[in-house]
Amino acid sequence: MLGGMLLAEAPKREEGRFFAFSARAFGLAAFAAALVSAVATIVAWPLHHLAAIAIAAAGATIVLVLGAIWRAMMLPTIRRFAAYAAAIERERERFERLFTTMPDIGILCDTNGVAQQLNAPAQGLFGDESGDGTGRHLDEYVAAEQRDAVGRYFARALHGDVVEFETVALGSRALRIPVWATFVPIPSGKAVVGVFWIAKDLRPLRSLEREVLFETERFRSLFDINYEPMLQLGADRHILRANAAFERISGYGSGELVGATSALFSQTGSEDIRENAYRRVMAGEAFEFESQLRCKDGRVLPVIVALIPMAHGSEIEGYYIVMRDLSAQRAFERREQLTREKLRELYRLATVSQDELEPLLARVLDFGRRILEMEIGYVLEIDGDDFVIRAKGGSQRFTIGDRIPIARAISRHLLENEAPLVINDIRESSFHNDLSADGELWRCFLGAPISVEGIRFGGLMFSSRYLRESPFDANDVDFVKLMAALLGSAFERDRRARTLGDLALRDPLTGLANRTMLAQRLEREIVRTKRNGGELGILFLDLDGFKDVNDRFGHAVGDRVLAEVGHRLVGVVRGDELVARIGGDEFIVVLNDLRRDSLERCTARIEKAMTKPFAEIDVPIGISVGPAIFGLDGSDPSSLLAAADAKMYRAKQLRRTAGVR
Fold this sequence. Notes:
Blueprint: H1 2-44, H2 49-101, E1 105-110, E2 115-118, H3 120-126, H4 147-158, E3 163-170, E4 176-188, E5 191-201, H5 203-222, E6 230-234, E7 239-242, H6 244-250, H7 254-257, H8 271-282, E8 287-294, E9 300-312, E10 315-325, H9 327-350, H10 357-372, E11 376-383, E12 386-393, E13 403-405, E14 421-423, E15 444-452, E16 455-464, H11 474-505, H12 515-532, E17 537-544, H13 546-553, H14 555-572, E18 578-583, E19 586-591, H15 599-610, E20 622-629, H16 637-658
Antiparallel strand pairs: 1-2, 1-5, 3-4, 4-5, 6-7, 6-10, 8-9, 9-10, 11-12, 11-16, 12-13, 14-15, 15-16, 17-19, 17-20, 18-19
Keywords: Membrane, Transmembrane, Transmembrane helix
Protein name: Diguanylate cyclase
Transmembrane segments: 21-45, 51-70
């Protein structure tokens, strides 16, 4: 074995030098003794044989004495050499054990690069049926493309350098094996007598690297590329890394997050919650809870937060925070809630009774404004060349009953086609030069036409001075169309109910409202006045001299005179004001807004109308008037009528005293 030879080289050299010295010394002594003995014997023999023998014996004795002296002088050296030789042998055996038992590939090569000895791993890798792999040149152990480089490394080792490098070994059956190799020179004196080639099989390392890469990529797919926001925090609560999803949703960059704590994006006042969560996750518990994320731009998002401990063995080195944005879910829940509210309100609208129509119009407008995020809402009714405001919400400019010329109203476009009118921004629409804006300053508008019994009745419209957060969508348009359709149905039912109710609520002689209808109207007007403000008033009318008409011309003529009185009264009041006959020659006029038509002006028109002569009689008919104002003269229909009746009676007495009919 080359290892044994190389390790035994030193003691053999020492042994050779020692014995060479000993041989020269012993030979010189023996030569001297033999020479002296021979000369003496030759000289003495002819003279005396005994003397010659004695001289020869003396020479031999001298040789023995010299040998004894040499032995005594060289004995310590011999002992040191024996100890050194034993140590060398132990080192040789130790090297043999290391070489044969080492787990890495080991090959002893001579200076020509020929393998002299292979350990077990090397034999398993390079050996085959033809042998254990010894006697082969180094080139046969490496891939062809690596041989030039390995030759250069081997040459460096022969010059005394320890060389490390990565190469590809060529095992049995041409198996390519990545290895990390080391050439260690074996010196003998100043010369290198061989090279020890140690090679570590990198296949397990490569497999481990692939596993690490796989785990790294899997972690990256779970963390960096995850669509859900994620953070990695250390045990000291500081952020180690954040994925792109978290940066995108929070608005913070990686440089702002790394090194910060979760307080950066947590809501103020949540310190106790964060502390409790930290204790639980560091105890190894994974859990989730609902919280809020404070973004860099000030937005607050609802999120589900999951805390997952980051364990290494039994140690918790930190934790992960995984968030799920609930904004879309909350928006969906709000839309669902709004849809339920829409259906509930629209169902109420679809089943409205006659008595609830006016209050319900106001509720519908308020609901529509809230759903559509609009400031102003109107229900408009066509009356000749004007729109009459039937209901309003949010507007301080107009009141119920106000008239807007159709030609100057943006809502006139609702009459031109069946489709809703959608304006997301008046400044960027084709209507930006349209001066008509319903008397209001607004930026966005949504309206739909209202039809009753197939005839255009008016329109439902919403507007706002401010732009919405998002443009109107199909759901908004469908919602307004449905509201307008149901409003049309409600107005149609109301109109039919009024027509049928006229039989019970109208005076058959004059066609005016009777006492029942008057009471209902007063109740509604009082409710509306309380809600919307304004001033409500009534006039109590009683004819003067009508008894003479019946006595002189008969009741048939009297009835026709009453009908003519009713006709004249209707002609001098506004269209939305009520005239009622409550019995005999007594009439009531209800003025629903005294700011537009005062009691004095209406009384003057009535008195003027009564001065005209009647066709079938030649006697004058006068009229006594008693005014009353809601809130001032009475707070309910009964007290209001009683106050007006009392004032009418006083006015009649004054007329009689003055002799006026």
